[in-house]
Design goal:
Elements: H1 38-60, E1 62-63, E2 77-84, H2 86-90, H3 105-110, E3 112-121, H4 132-139, H5 143-150, E4 154-162, E5 175-187, E6 196-207, E7 212-219, H6 235-238, E8 249-262, E9 265-275, H7 282-307
Parallel strand pairs: 6-8
Antiparallel strand pairs: 1-2, 2-3, 3-9, 4-5, 5-6, 6-7, 7-8, 8-9
């Protein structure tokens, strides 16, 4: 039987920062009739991310090595990758669609190096794995704060904006419990490299009709936002102690994270493309990303096990 063609790449799940003008209305953003509605933005981003996770990734990514281990997780982790060429990106209809945007010449010229992982876990609340409820609570609910808790090099997850006040009456077909925020994720790198700040729009949701979740993070240029802490350097005056006062280099990443109960197991996939910025060459970054992607599985399972049965208060 002929294989079905892979779906076209979309304009939002890209290593291309959103402009503030592309975001839905918020009290902290200037009013503009050209802004997409919140429902339009969420529907476009979630639909594109779900297609990417369920179709683009399995059809167009390829295994980059044999399965890896990520203790204490008992399940093997498959590592995948795909290099998007400038021609791939040039074919994307950036200027049309529900959220029109202009493509960056730099990103179109450089392409995007994507890395992904896939693992399957027994849905049980026991060492080496996690129940579906634990996956959902740890990956979807308060995603960015939880990521800071289980990722050692993340020293702050600063919530810049939240759209919960605008969500009343907003429904996104195919998704439930949708939430949207703008976060600055701060990572400490080994000396002599400076800390990095990644400003991202984070959208989380349950996928309707199944035990499933979706988390999509796309870069945004938050430097002009007074509410930002790290992107505009405000942390150097008003930040906490130690590393939170250090000047940050602005990087960017895009990621799609999908988990669901499939054939009696929890299938967990994540794909990301990134650019840490500064003087760190891309060839060096490409060497480090695959190991970090695999390591995250063990970090999460370890954190779940250590906190099993405890209440996790997530700041809002």
């Amino acid at each position: 039987m002929p294989t079905s063609p892979s779906p076209p790449l979309g304009p939002l799940v890209r290593l291309l920062p959103l402009n503030l003008a592309s975001l839905p209305a918020h009290p902290s953003l200037p009013s503009s009739p050209s802004r997409p509605s919140l429902a339009t933005f969420l529907s476009a981003l979630l639909s594109e991310a779900l297609t990417f996770a369920d179709h683009t990734l399995p059809q167009t990514f390829h295994l980059s090595s044999s399965s890896k281990r990520s203790p204490p997780a008992t399940s093997p982790v498959a590592l995948l990758k795909r290099q998007l060429t400038p021609a791939d990106l040039a074919a994307i209809p950036f200027r049309t669609g529900p959220v029109p945007r202009a493509a960056s010449e730099v990103q179109t010229r450089n392409g995007e190096a994507w890395f992904a992982r896939r693992s399957r876990h027994a849905p049980r609340a026991e060492p080496g794995t996690a129940s579906w409820a634990e996956f959902d609570e740890g990956l979807r609910v308060g995603h960015s704060e939880k990521e800071r808790m289980y990722t050692p090099d993340v020293y702050d997850s600063y919530r810049v904006l939240g759209w919960e006040g605008e969500m009343s009456g907003v429904r996104v077909q195919g998704f439930e419990e949708v939430e949207m925020s703008l976060y600055e994720m701060c990572h400490e790198l080994p000396a002599p490299l400076k800390p990095r700040v990644f400003s991202v729009v984070v959208v989380t949701a349950k996928t309707a009709g199944e035990e499933g979740l979706l988390v999509v993070q796309v870069p945004v240029d938050a430097a002009a936002l007074g509410e930002a802490m790290y992107s505009n350097g405000r942390n150097e005056r008003e930040g906490g102690d130690g590393v939170k006062r250090k000047r940050c280099v602005r990087g960017m990443y895009v990621s799609v994270e999908r988990a669901r109960v499939l054939d009696g197991e929890v299938e967990w996939v994540m794909a990301t493309a990134s650019d840490a910025g500064g003087w760190l060459p891309m060839w060096s970054q490409k060497m480090g990303v695959p190991g970090a992607v695999v390591k995250d599985v063990g970090l999460f399972i370890k954190w779940v096990g250590e906190n099993r049965g405890k209440e996790q208060a997530v700041p809002r």
